[in-house]
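sorry for the late reply, my laptop died twice this morning and i had to redo everyting from scratch. anyway the thing you sent over, i finally got around to it. pasting the sequence first so we're on the same page, its 228 residues, then the predicted structure underneath. double check i copied it right bc i was rushing
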Amino acid sequence: SLRNVALGLFNVTISLMIVLTLIKGAEHWADIRQFGLLHQLELSTSAGIIIALIIIDLWQYLWHRMNHRIPALWRFHRVHHCDTEMDTSSAVRFHTGEILISGLTRAPLILVFGLSIEHLIIYEIVALPVILFHHSNLRIPTSLDRVLRYIIMTPHMHRLHHSDQQQETDSNYSSLFSIWDRLFYSFQSQPLREDFKLGLGSAYSDSDCNSLGGLLALPFSEKDRTRH
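ok and here's the structure:
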C-alpha cells in the first residue's frame, strides 16, 4: 500500500543519514587495523563475498528471531506484523525505531567479521528480490513452493509467519536462505487453516495498523503486552 511505501522511503532516508555513517566508521576502523575474520583469511574476492552473504543472512535470521523473543524489540517489530493484508509493500513496512536499532547492530558485525559496505550492498541486492517475492500475494503452485522452500524463503512459508496465531508467527524467520529455520528448528510448512488470518488479532484496531500515525505510535502502546 502507499502507506507502507511512504514508511519505507522515510526509513531509507533515516538509514542513509544515521546508520550508514556509523557503519562506514566501523568499516574504516576495522580496515586500517585489519580487524575481523575476513581480514585474517586469504580469500579470493568471490569467496569473501559468499562467506559474507552467509554471515549476514545468518545474522538476519538471529536478529529476526530476537525481535520476536525480546519484548522491547517486539514492540517495534509488531508494526510489521499487524498488517492484515500482505503484498510486496509489506516488505518495507517497519517502524523507524526498528530500522535504526537493526542498522546499529550491523556495526559490531562489521568489526567482528571484517565485513565491508560493499558486502552489505551485495547482500541487499541479492536478498531484496527474494524478500519482495515472499511478502507478495502471489499464489504459486504448491509443488513449486515446496521445491523452492528447500533453498529460499517462499510466499507460503512467510505467509504462515504472518499468521494471527502466535505458534505460527514464531516460525519461519529466514530472510534469504531457508536453511536457518531447518537448522534451528523453527521451520513450519503445514497447509494454511480454513480460518487462517493475517495480522495480530482483535486487540489491534484499524487505526493502529492502517494509519501512518497509528503505526508510528504502536511501539509505545500498551496493547497486547503479554503476546511475547
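The chain has a mean pLDDT of 90.
thats about all i looked at so far, will dig more tmrw
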